[in-house]
Amino acid sequence: MKKEIIAVGIPKALLYHNYHVLWEHFFYELGVELVYSKATDKEILEVGKTYAIDETCLSLKTYLGHIAYLVDKVDYILVPRIVSLKKHDKLCTNFYALYDIVNNLFKTKIIHYNIDVDARINEKKAFIKMGKELGFSASLASHAYMKAKRIVKRNKRHKLIKQNKLLDSDKIKILLAGHPYNIHDRLMGGVVKKILNDLDVEVLCSDVYDYREAKDLYKEIAPHLYWTYNQDIVNAMLYYQDKIDGIIILTSFPCGPDSLTNEMCLKKIEKPIINLIIDELSSEVGLETRIESFIDIIKARLNQNE
């Protein structure tokens, strides 16, 4: 008898922007059908707000809207739980609690994996266990994971080559720095990128940099910074700072780790830098005004140095 195809829902928010290539190829190798939520829009955000308390950050409110969109459309919704990716380092507590939040708010089946390097649960073990829970053998899940990881590595290399080519441009070059789930979200980073593109500015993204060369640069700003994703953002800013004309930090309100890390970067990085904090009431007009002013300042500095 032919095995029934499993449909797994993928919310296009939060960790999707870090791991979608890994997820897509892992599940493809297993023959699992993927169903995606739509790109973030105001409807997604408004629905997410109904499930969230006021203190929830904008990114998590949006994520809950994506979960709501997928309920009743799939067999399972993928909701990872990630505590630590490196020894003695942590992620934001929202990522610890993500499974419990979704499980308590929605009546839907969840497929998840748990990564906690401090507890000796690495990514490969987590994916093999998830594959087994879906009914696949450990060997098949292991093969799918390893093949997906090779594709991820190749994809990252191509993205770095492509982004490095932008550094040869004669245009003003701005690094858009922030969590991938902010800078690549259509309702947040998408708006900022559009404004910068309309100003004829070359936009680079902080989730693309040479990790081997820059993995410990964050220690120049904060030697004891233990939020892994914030380490990545600071690494990228320091990696690109001598190759670009300015930095825009994009933050969703009220992110605790970002509020602390960004303050240190604003004080210690000498390159022109601005911190844009986005909340559910932020207007595109207000963002456009601030970004235009920032680019005007950079143009004036460049003209002065000629």
Task: State the gist of this model.
The chain has twelve helices and ten strands. It is α/β, with parallel strands linked by helices and 306 residues long. It is globular, with a radius of gyration of 20 Å.
What does this structure look like?
There is one protein chain. α1 crosses α6 and α5 crosses α6. Helix content is 51%, strand content 14%. The longest helix has 29 residues. α11 links the parallel β9 and β10. The strands form 3 sheets. The protein has a 4-stranded parallel beta sheet, with helices on both faces. It has a 4-stranded parallel beta sheet with strand order 8-7-9-10, sandwiched between helices. A two-stranded parallel ribbon has the order 4-6. The protein has 2 domains: 145 residues, Rossmann fold (3-Layer(aba) Sandwich); 139 residues, 3-Layer(aba) Sandwich (Rossmann fold). The termini are far apart. 38% of the residues are buried. By secondary structure, the chain is of the alpha/beta class. It is globular, with a radius of gyration of 20 Å.
What is the CA-CA span between the terminal residues? 74 Å
Return the CATH topology of the largest domain. Rossmann fold
Proportion of residues in β-strands:
5-15%
Number of helices: 12
Helix/strand class: alpha/beta
The count of domains is: 2
The shape is globular
Strand adjacency order, main sheet:
2-1-3-5
- How many strand elements? 10
Order of helices and strands: EHEHHEEHEEHHEHHEHHEHEH
Helical coverage, percent range = 40-55%
CATH class of the largest domain: Alpha Beta
Main beta sheet strand tally, sense and closure: 4 strands, parallel
Mean pLDDT score: 92
Query: What is the second-level CATH architecture of the largest domain?
Result: 3-Layer(aba) Sandwich
Uncertain segments of ≥5 residues (pLDDT<50)? none
Computed Rg: 20 Å
